[in-house]
Amino acid sequence: MTYRIKNWDEHFEKSQSRKCAKMTWVALPNKHDGKGYRRVAQHERATELFTAWVLIVQVASKMPTRGLLMDEDGPLTAADLADKTGFPESIFHLAFTVLTQPNIGWLERVAGSTLPAAGSVVELQDRTQQDI
User: If we measure between CA atoms, which residue out of 2, 123, 17 comes closest to residue 61?
Assistant: First the structure.
């Protein structure tokens, strides 16, 4: 399964980041009153979820196609994220389950297991609705 951050360009790209070929930082919104955020904050494992989310955003900012959790080897798994960040694999499994739920919708499941060609527009099929 391949995951991407929903609306990456709208929420995480800024004029400065669009000029960078290699990211060493990411713009992280500080909105704390959205429905998705409030639902994450009220979850019994909120601290683990939000930690996983911030780490996912950071890793996604460094991917060949920003926002898409896929590198040259293919889709990133919870184990890959754990290896890259040093945090437990279990928090990423939790994040994949909870953050793809329609009432939160921070992550999307998409079809595709190879990176788009260089310079192409990413148009991967959104499977979120198909899986419901």
Answer: 17
